[in-house]
Design brief:
The complex is a heterotrimer of chains A (about 775), B (about 290) and C (about 160). Chain B is of the alpha+beta class and about 290 residues long. Chain B is about 30% helix and about 25% strand. The N and C termini of chain B lie far apart (about 45 Å). Chain C has two domains: about 10-85, Roll (Ubiquitin-like (UB roll)), CATH 3.10.20.30; about 90-160, DNA polymerase, domain 1. In chain C, a hairpin with a 2-residue loop joins strand 3 (about 55-60) and strand 4. Chains in contact: A-B, A-C, B-C.
């Protein structure tokens, strides 16, 4: 399988290479970019959710100090260019989606579709003066009826948001087994409506872009916060009629992404257009207030769920109708609801399943996948439903899970569903019952259940919850990696993806060190620059370590192969006698007969041996094409206490068992899980994007969008399971989004368990106000 | 994010600052710690033509003992109050209130005077200043005047401070010896402002009867106010659990409660009672020192 | 476009270096540090004085530099993240963050570390509860805080040993 080269770094908590610059304030984020003669850009944003633009009056703004220009699409034709969706119709092999309609979108439109949409652009000497200009631009609107919610958009007689396009812009449907037959024979049939809120990325770094046109080389340099910087390059090139090689997009360092720095933001393209047209360097960074209205968010989702079960608690069928608010434009071909369908089974046998979903446009900020991307919605649905069955049968929620769980012996397990890459889903390992047992024990579930009634008698309101998840991660199509050793012996690893905190410069170096035989400190990993590799497919969908990691593995091994051939020749021995460790190739058993990487690299430039080894240099570029995604999994169990008078929730215990396959760097795995859990808890308890009936954003600043602080994060009891996947040589599964999936379901269950009185928790967030309402409902019952 | 332009002044003396205020009136805003004013200016909710920075004026930040209690300079920061051995020894309640304001960085800059002049309806100090006996000393070019705390808070972010005046000192009378005091709040999860906060000071005689009760509430209405109904219900009563519980039910009396994002008016009434009760229980537990 | 705007001369010592510049009175301290002095390690993450990414030490106290006018810091001494490491050697707090994976994207990190400087000055042997409480002015979206708390505990031990 995989012979490594002596000491292994994979699996060790190696300290991160990127920390050196980030800890000393020497990162280079977009707002740090300083270009001589740089101007600053501001955006005049729509104050209305739906309106025609009658006039843009700029005289006052132009009279202000430091203001260089105020532009609309009328002044600068490229500003009227289309902004494509990231995944246009037909991009994917989506097996369920039978309708997906493009909603044409312009960078700077003449009509407002959501509050915050950019309607005019200002350019000024400083960001302060740009802000003055933005305030001074006057816009005349002709307001139009607002589709403030998806319900508004599908009501009979609702106006169409886009000409010639129905407000239902996408549809999917899938059935597995025979759902209606199952419902006919079921002992228990239940239904309810679940509501999942819209969420904001809230990366601490907001979005931004900087750009500079270099007349001497006829090229455009762009600094971006995007997670999809190759797509940004392609759209810029297409818009400005420049060859792709003349547009360089750099995206490093980036201060958090979580999905929402993926594409579909007009500013990503407008800033480079301005630099090109005005022949001056430009920079723009979003303010947090702009982020709250203009940065994409996840879509508010409603599920109508029906379940059929036997009286022994086993599930016969699940039927889910999904209504997804995608905001003003359709750009992601139902990635999230498709993920939801495919993540519904989690750890349980669902023999009959039907799902149908509708993407609906509204006058809200456009929607793109946020960390989790439909998976939290799946776990919320399945775990709430299992708890509903528990209630109807009188069984403990833990017992219902035991009766439905997929045992180890059933692996590999085909769920009957098809991933959005078109490949049938098979869980290739994982010990679901083991993880359930582990999390339950870590949380002392039985102990707390045993004490619950007695504690209630002393006035303490305790509740327990369980939730399980799987994470399909590591989707293709592919990633590449170049591994090259230079004549000083340094190893350069080039990849076509970038990091927003995941530590790729470290984990990919660990992989390279092990499989090339290099010293960790001699390796430098570089990504986030379109000049490094010809293409990459984005940091999203928990795909980088699986794809780029295995590409690095392949390239490292190929370079090692070349080293062995070259060294055997240089050291006059058989190839089988060559060992490669710590940057040196030597004859096994005698380290005296050796050649360093530096010597070998120098040799590899001119040696005719390289004719049979792919050309000059110790270099290889390999690509990893995953057959399909890998499946990580886990179980979360929580014990909470409620303050009945205020509705405040306190987490007493939070236990998790999880399996991410082979952990390349356990410290980084823990970090990904911890951070994901913090976001999941925020979604469970506090966070929500809120609108009023006019489409105005009520959650307009950090003050109105509470996130977890240090004091809110519980200590975690964690058990790690390791079942390597057979889907890739490294055996790694994805971890990026795992932490976010279970918390909303687990806290919903625990709070419901605490409140009692027949009350059902069917929506998040469980703010104190929501909890107080549930407590009143229980008291009234 | 970016304040609008303004003219900046940093007068070296109080007299010079007051002269500027006399001339400019409400075209100027005084700047102390800046943690109420600057956030408003960054969102352009405030766009003063003139800003008068008080940083160079000596003698505005101090904590002194007086014959009645404590005198605190208006420019004293929350951290200075929080960490003052004098305040901790003489009037622990105030140190605890200060320690719960916002976060450590804000407390290093925010001042008691700035907070009181700004009068955010969910700020922490107002509840306890109403429950204590407090006088606010204001200075203008015309001289000084003293305003009792009860007359200070006049409405939503409205105080008795005139546009040509500066708040310069806060005089606190120490409660009678043996008084128990506590401030309990329900903090907003994002800002730590008080969704509801109640400060209670309770004095009892040797037989456990209440000889004095003063409560202030913040967060639920447009301005902080006393809980007169609760105070009346406690007068002369035995301070046992049952009495406190009944007294607390009077909390909503006279309060101006409206529905908002945090709670309905009915919930605010209930929460006022809950926190009155919790503050009283904590205060009574501290009676006797 | 009218050109003339009123500026004032301000001198602030940042990491022992005097930075003297003519600036508009409305210039926020964080922008003086980042743009006038070119020290971009201190970051801006919000506009409501909540996230703490802009935290620096001002005359020894941790403050949110986005909520201070540069003019208010005229004549003051500032320490930013760039001023912590001495002669290429990381400060123990920086080391702790590295040892314990207290950062991921790194954007909140400079402010978090400067807040930790004050935390450990005031509480040299903090409990985890005290650390959580004293970090209330700093928001991190990546780490979930637990490894930050570990990092500060590590740093407290390291400082105690010095």
């Amino acid at each position: 399988m995989k012979e490594t080269t002596g000491a292994t770094l994979v699996g060790k908590p190696v300290r991160r290479k990127e920390d050196e610059r980030l800890l000393t304030g020497r990162g280079l984020y977009v707002e740090d970019v300083q270009l001589p003669g740089m101007l600053h850009v501001g955006f005049v944003r729509s104050a209305h959710a739906h309106a025609n633009l009658l006039a843009v009056r700029r005289e006052r703004a132009l009279a202000l100090p430091g203001v260089v220009a105020v532009l609309t699409a009328d002044d600068c034709p490229e500003l009227a260019s289309p902004l494509p969706g990231l995944l246009e119709p037909g991009t994917l092999n989506n097996p369920y989606c039978d309708l997906n309609v493009a909603t044409p979108r312009l960078l700077v439109p003449r009509k407002a579709h959501y509050v915050g949409e950019p309607l005019a652009v200002v350019v000024a000497r400083s960001a302060y003066e740009a802000a003055d200009a933005v305030e001074a631009v006057e816009i005349d609107y002709a307001p139009l009826p607002v589709l403030a919610s998806w319900q508004d958009a599908i009501r009979a007689g609702a106006p169409r948001l886009h000409d010639g396009v129905d407000n239902v812009v996408a549809h999917l449907k899938h059935e597995l087994g025979d759902v209606e037959a199952a419902f006919r024979v079921a002992d228990i049939v239940a239904e309810e409506r679940l509501e999942i809120q819209s969420l904001k990325s809230m990366a601490i770094e907001c979005r931004g872009a900087a750009a500079q046109w270099d007349a001497a080389t006829g090229s455009l340099d762009v600094w971006s916060t995007s997670q999809q910087y190759y797509v940004v390059r392609d759209i810029i090139a297409r818009t400005l009629l420049l060859p792709q090689e003349r547009v360089r997009v750099m995206a490093r360092d980036v201060g958090g992404g979580f999905g929402l720095k993926g594409l579909l933001h007009p500013e990503d393209i407008i800033i480079p257009i301005l630099a090109f047209r005005l022949r001056r360097p430009m920079r723009w960074v979003e303010t947090r207030s702009e982020h709250m209205i203009a940065s994409n968010q996840s879509g508010e989702t409603v599920h109508d769920v029906r379940v059929a079960a036997r009286r022994d608690g086993t599930i016969l069928a699940l039927d889910v109708k999904m209504y997804i608010d995608v905001g003003a434009f359709n750009g992601f071909e139902m990635v999230c609801p498709t993920n939801t369908v495919n993540h519904l089974p989690t750890h349980y046998r669902i023999p009959n399943l039907r799902a149908e979903g509708w993407s609906i446009v509204t006058n809200r900020t456009p929607v793109t996948p946020y960390r989790g991307a439909g998976r939290p919605e799946a776990t919320f649905t399945t775990d709430r439903t299992l708890d509903l069955v528990a209630r109807r049968t009188g069984l403990d929620p833990l017992e219902v899970r035991r009766r439905n769980i997929i045992p180890r012996e059933s692996m590999p397990y085909a769920t009957g569903l098809i991933y959005r890459d078109g490949v049938p889903i098979v869980y290739d390992g994982g010990d679901f019952p083991g993880m359930l047992r582990s999390a339950v024990e870590l949380a002392d579930y039985d102990g707390w259940r045993g004490r619950q009634a007695a504690l209630r008698a002393t006035g303490r309101t305790i509740g327990l919850g369980i939730a399980s998840y799987v994470e399909g991660g590591g989707i293709g199509p592919s990633e590449g990696a170049t591994v090259r050793i230079d004549e000083t012996g340094r190893v350069l690893v080039l990849v076509g993806v970038n990091s927003q905190g995941q530590g790729h410069e470290t984990t990919l170096a660990q992989i390279c060190a092990d499989h090339l035989g290099a010293r960790f400190e001699d390796i430098e990993v570089r990504g986030g620059d379109t000049t490094l590799l010809s293409i990459g497919f984005g940091t999203a969908a928990s795909r980088v370590l699986v794809n780029a990691g295995n590409a690095v593995f392949k390239s490292a091994r190929e370079v090692r192969r070349k080293i062995v051939v070259l060294a055997a020749h240089m050291l006059e021995c058989a190839e089988a006698d060559i060992a490669v460790e710590q940057g040196v190739a030597f004859v096994r058993g005698t380290r005296q007969i050796a050649a360093s990487f530096a010597e070998l690299a120098a040799k590899a430039n001119r040696s005719p041996m390289m004719a049979a080894l792919g050309g000059p240099g110790l270099i290889a570029t390999e690509h990893f094409y995953p057959r399909t995604v890998t499946w990580s999994s886990g179980v979360h169990v929580a014990v909470i206490e409620l303050d009945r008078e205020t509705g405040v929730v306190k987490i007493l215990k939070y236990a998790t068992a999880h399996d991410v396959g082979v952990p390349v760097n356990p410290m980084i795995v823990d970090g990904q899980l911890n951070g994901g859990i913090a976001q999941g808890l925020g979604a469970a308890l506090f966070e929500a994007v809120l609108y009023d009936a006019q489409g105005q954003v009520l959650s307009g600043s950090m003050m109105d969008y509470p996130m977890l602080h240090a004091a809110d994060m519980p200590e975690l009891e964690v058990e790690h399971f390791v079942s390597p996947t057979s889907e890739n040589p490294l055996g790694v599964r994805a971890v990026g989004e795992s932490g976010t999936i279970a918390p909303p379901a687990v806290l919903a269950a625990a709070i419901e368990d605490a409140i009692g009185g027949g009350v059902r928790v069917t929506r998040t967030p469980l703010t104190p106000r929501h909890v107080r309402a549930l407590l009143r409902e229980a008291a009234g019952a | 994010m970016y304040p609008a332009a303004f003219r900046y002044h940093a007068p070296a003396t109080l007299e010079a600052a007051l002269a500027l205020l006399a001339e400019l009136g409400d075209r100027a805003r005084p700047l102390a710690g800046g943690h109420s004013l600057i956030p408003m200016m960054k969102l352009r909710l405030a766009q003063p033509e003139h800003v008068i920075d008080l940083r160079k004026i000596a003698g505005l930040a101090f904590i002194r003992e007086t014959d009645r209690g404590l005198a605190i300079g208006a420019a004293t920061t929350h951290w200075q109050v929080e960490s003052s051995p004098l305040v901790t020894a003489r009037l622990k309640l105030l140190a605890e209130v200060a320690a719960g304001i916002a976060d450590p960085q804000v407390r290093n800059r925010g001042t008691i005077g700035g907070s009181l002049a700004h009068a955010d309806p969910a700020a922490d100090y107002p509840a306890s200043l109403l429950a204590l006996e407090v006088e606010l000393v204001c200075a203008s070019a015309k001289g000084r005047r003293v305003i009792k705390a009860d007359a200070w808070f006049q409405g939503l972010m409205a105080t008795a401070l005139a546009s040509d005046e500066l708040l310069v000192e806060i005089h606190v009378t120490l409660p009678p010896p043996g008084t128990g005091a506590a401030y309990i709040k329900l903090p907003h999860p994002a800002t730590r402002f008080a969704i509801v906060g109640v400060a209670a000071l309770v004095t009892q005689d040797g037989s456990g009867r209440c000889t004095r009760a003063r409560l202030g509430i913040t967060g639920v209405g447009p301005a902080a106010t006393r809980l007169a109904g609760v105070e009346a219900a406690l007068a002369g009563a035995a301070l046992d659990r049952a009495t406190i519980e009944v007294a607390a039910t009077q909390a909503a009396e006279g309060l101006d409660l409206q529905d908002d994002r945090h709670a309905t008016a009915a919930e605010k009434a209930a929460l006022a009672g809950v926190f009155a009760r919790r503050a009283l229980e904590a205060a009574v537990a501290r009676c006797g020192g | 476009m009218t050109e003339r705007i009123d500026t004032m001369s301000i001198a602030i010592t940042i990491n022992d270096v005097v930075e003297a510049h003519d600036v508009e009175p409305r210039l926020l301290l964080v922008h003086f540090i980042r743009e006038s002095a070119g020290l971009t390690g201190t970051h801006v993450g919000c506009d409501t004085s909540q996230c703490g990414a802009c935290t620096v030490l001002l005359d020894g106290l941790a403050v949110k530099s986005c909520t201070v006018l540069a003019a208010q810091a005229d004549g003051a001494e500032i320490v930013t993240i760039e001023g912590l490491a001495k002669n290429g050697a990381l400060h123990p707090i920086q080391q702790g963050f590295r040892e314990k994976h207290g950062l991921q994207c790194g954007f909140c990190t400079p402010g978090m570390i400067m807040a930790a400087c004050q935390l450990l000055q005031r509480h040299p042997k903090p409990t985890r509860a005290q650390i959580r409480d004293q970090l209330d002015g700093n928001v991190c979206r990546c780490t979930g805080y637990l490894q930050i708390i570990d990092a500060i505990e590590w740093a407290a031990d390291a400082l105690a040993k010095r």
